[in-house]
Design a protein that fits this description.
Helices cover about 55% and strands about 0% of the residues. The protein has about 80 residues and is mostly helical. Helix 2 crosses helix 3 (about 65-75). The longest helix has 15 residues, at about 10-25.
Length: about 80
C-alpha cells in the first residue's frame, strides 16, 4: 500500500486534481482527510461524546471504503 502522505508534493497535487475531476470537491476533501485519519494513533480510546448508538466504527477497511462510507455518513447525517 502506498502512503500518499509521504509522497512528494507534486505527486499529491496530481492525485488531488485527479480526485477533483472524478469525485468533486466534497468527496476529494473526505479522501484527503481519510489518508491522514488512517495514520492516527491513540494512547487511549477516544471518549464517546453524546449518544453512543450514534457512532459508527469501521474496522479493517482501507482508505477507499473508509472515505466512501465517511462521505455518505457526513452527507446524510451531518
Amino acid at each position: 500500500m502506498v502512503d500518499y502522505t509521504k509522497e512528494p508534493f507534486w505527486f499529491k497535487i496530481r492525485k488531488v486534481l485527479r480526485y477533483l475531476r472524478l469525485y468533486g470537491f466534497k468527496r476529494t476533501l473526505v479522501k484527503v482527510r481519510g489518508q491522514y485519519h488512517m495514520k492516527k494513533t491513540f494512547d487511549d480510546h477516544p471518549k464517546l461524546m453524546g449518544n453512543p448508538s450514534g457512532h459508527v466504527g469501521l474496522l479493517g477497511c482501507g482508505n477507499f471504503p473508509f472515505s466512501a462510507i465517511a462521505y455518505y455518513l457526513k452527507k446524510n447525517y451531518g
